[in-house]
Amino acid sequence: MTTYRSGGGFFEVPHAAVYLLLTANIAMYGLCLLQSDAGVISAELLFRNGAMYSSAIDRHQYWRLIAYGFLHSSLFHLMSNMFCLVLWGGHLERRIGSLYFVVIYGCAVIFGAVVGAFTHSGPYLTVGASGGTSGILGALLCLWILGKIDLQANFFVINIGLNIALALSYSRIDWGAHLGGFAAGLIACAIIDLLEKANSLVLRCKFPEFVKVNLFVVACVLGLLLWDKLSAALALGTGGSRLVVAYAAACFLVIKLSDIVLSMNKGLAIIVVVLATTNAAVVLFGGNALESSLSLGCALHRPGKIIQVEPLLGAICSNPGLTIGVVAACLFALTILLYSQELYRGIKDVGFVGASLRAERKRRQGI
């Protein structure tokens, strides 16, 4: 059994996903402040920007299950949640990687909203990242129960107590979101551990983190682009379930093909080039799918206060196809630049990279 050494402290330096979530939450709070009067964020403004409320699920406004987790009603509300994110997030992300961290965090935010919806007897409005941060603590507890992290028991006693104290210090706390997020984090972490154990029977290689993250992002973007077609097919009963099965089968096929390529000589370099090409292709596909919306937005556009932006917007609207192509080319180059170290390692590979990835898969059981 592999045990992660945390250094024995209560604090772990945050990593990429924690910084990304931290930036997103602070940016959303700033945007809400810009829309507010006299620096006060009203309930009406929060509702307009994605707050969770009593009839959201019944009205199929599922985007609110995520959006509410990036909204905060006050600076103290924001700072307390970001403090917990930084305090606990570093431990979890370093142990399980950025992808699984984001998946667990997202599950906790969504499940926290669902539990909160069922625990309120009347109308309510909920915002805040507390469901997600509680999920981080729940996932850490799961790893501790499984014996896969060497944090001490007093870490959980103190931090669970801290979570409760911060919650009590804020009026009108949504305990359903807190408890739902904590349970979701614990359960999601346990399920991911089981999936990783099953992967040792299905996959030969341990995927590098950048491969997992890139494939996950592509799958999510394509899923969103296909969502309208899926919703229409399910509503009309015209093969929606077959579309879901086909999408799932395609995802599995891509994962298995990536596994085979990674096990080959210079496979890491091939994967980098394929991912860069795939990212560019997704932009082209998504741009073509959304070109009508872009044209409508250009038609409805009115000149704004920032005069320097107007020539750029004019160029985009005059030739949207060229704009999409330029963005795709830039994303291809950016992907190559970001993965340049892995590309160089793959080009210089004489057979050791695939062997090391296969050995890591055999050595690691679970997350």
Notes on the protein architecture:
The chain has 17 helices and two strands. The radius of gyration is 23 Å and the shape is globular. The protein is mainly α. A two-stranded antiparallel sheet has the order 1-2. The protein has helices spanning 16-35, 43-49, 64-67, 75-96, 98-119, 130-145, 153-168, 175-202, 209-225, 227-236, 240-262, 267-289, 291-300, 310-318, 320-338, 340-347, 352-363, and strands at residues 52-53, 125-126. The longest helix is centred in the middle third of the chain and has 28 residues, at 175-202. It has two domains: 1-202, Rhomboid-like fold (Up-down Bundle); 204-367, no CATH class.
Note the topology:
Layout: H1 16-35, H2 43-49, E1 52-53, H3 64-67, H4 75-96, H5 98-119, E2 125-126, H6 130-145, H7 153-168, H8 175-202, H9 209-225, H10 227-236, H11 240-262, H12 267-289, H13 291-300, H14 310-318, H15 320-338, H16 340-347, H17 352-363
Antiparallel strand pairs: 1-2
Helix pairs in contact: 1-4, 4-5, 4-6, 5-6, 5-8, 6-8, 9-12, 10-11, 11-12, 12-15, 12-16
Brief overview, please?
With 367 residues, the protein is an all-alpha fold. Helix content is 72%, strand content 1%. It has a two-stranded antiparallel sheet.
The largest sheet, given as strand count, sense and whether it forms a barrel, is: 2 strands, antiparallel
Mean pLDDT: 85
Level of helix content? over 70%
Q: How many strands appear in the DSSP assignment?
A: 2
Query: SSE order, as H and E?
Result: HHEHHHEHHHHHHHHHHHH
